[in-house]
Amino acid sequence: MEEKPNVLFFANIPVAGEHRSIGGATVLAKKIKDYLSLDERISCHHVQIRSFWRSKFQLLDYFIWAFKFPFLIRKVDVVSFHGTKDFHFTIAPILWAWAKLCKKKVCYHFFGGNFHEQYDAFPGFIKCLLRKTILNSDTVFFETIEMLKYFEKRHIKNSVWLPNSRAAVLNTRERKEFRKKFVFISRVIPQKGIGEIIEAANLLSKDYTVDVYGPIDDRYYTERVFKNSNATYKGLLDPKDVIDKLFEYDVLLLPSYFSGEGYPGIIIEALSLSMPVIATKWMALPEIITTEHNGILIEIKNTNQLKNAITSFNTENYRAYSNNALDSFKNFDSAIVFNKIIERYLL
């Protein structure tokens, strides 16, 4: 019997008690890790990239890894990197070089939707370094179609579309009639459209519900920002409770203009529950949400458009939106998407 490959899954996942570790990339990394750990075709061992979560302290982790990494990978067959911006442009090329010197297969996964824009802004010698290292991996996973096409035009080979994904919800519960209940679940920062949500909520009649869940970034807000507002802050959610909480509402709100926006996991989870989404014409969001089909797209920083989008949902059109949302989820089913990773490990 052929021996199964030993895979090092090098990624950050959420850490208990450390709110800085909770984000779209870390939540997705954990879902991928959990999926891989159940597959009998591979042996997967996870290693956390960061131990220090205070701002800028990741540089200390990176310095340590520059020396530890070649010893860590001695007994693995595949090194699977899953990183974000600060990782790509700092330590990643060095660790990639160690992996290749040790003759390991390398898979590299870019979270988010704007790496191509960051790459485009760098001088030629940095682009050359990235092309010779991480973009020259045995497999390169890109989250969005836009990024995939960008790098294919620049002759980056072995690239694969790996959208943010979630497990299908078995025996999907029947959605109730439209109840005017709207919800935001994400980081509570200006770039996710919190200001616009608060302003739009204050323009709505009292029979609308607008609730907000997520970690508040105290650099921008405190809970007082919701005082005397029609938008209500409801606190943090454990990731395992997100699906049940989403099902209590009718429509997801994500009027984001966050610079690293790819395919937000919360949108994928909403679609899996046949829940339409109000999002913005920003980054890759139009790749997953289509106006008057599975949701509504609005311009960024536009309170009036957000309010009008909210009030455009009614008992007559909600069922069609809901059915289309569930139908569009098929592109983001983790059973299909995450299997692409394992197939690349086995090549």
Describe this structure in words.
The protein is of the alpha/beta class. The chain has 2 domains: 6-162, Rossmann fold (3-Layer(aba) Sandwich); 181-331, Rossmann fold (3-Layer(aba) Sandwich). It is built from 13 helices and 12 strands. The protein has helices spanning 24-37, 58-72, 85-88, 92-101, 115-120, 124-132, 145-152, 194-201, 242-246, 265-272, 303-312, 318-328, 334-346, and strands spanning 6-11, 43-47, 78-83, 105-110, 139-142, 159-161, 181-185, 209-213, 231-233, 251-254, 277-280, 295-298. A 6-stranded parallel sheet has the order 2-1-3-4-5-6, with helices on both faces. Helix 2 runs parallel beside helix 4 (92-101). The radius of gyration is 21 Å and the shape is globular. The mean pLDDT is 93.
Q: Which class of the largest domain in CATH terms?
A: Alpha Beta
Helix content estimate: 25-40%
What would you report as the Rg, rounded to the nearest angstrom?
A: 21 Å
Known CATH architecture of the largest domain: 3-Layer(aba) Sandwich
- What is the rounded distance between the termini? 17 Å
- Give the low-confidence spans: none
Number of domains: 2
Judging from the principal axes of the Cα atoms, what is the shape?
globular
The tally of beta strands, per DSSP, is 12
Total helices: the number is 13
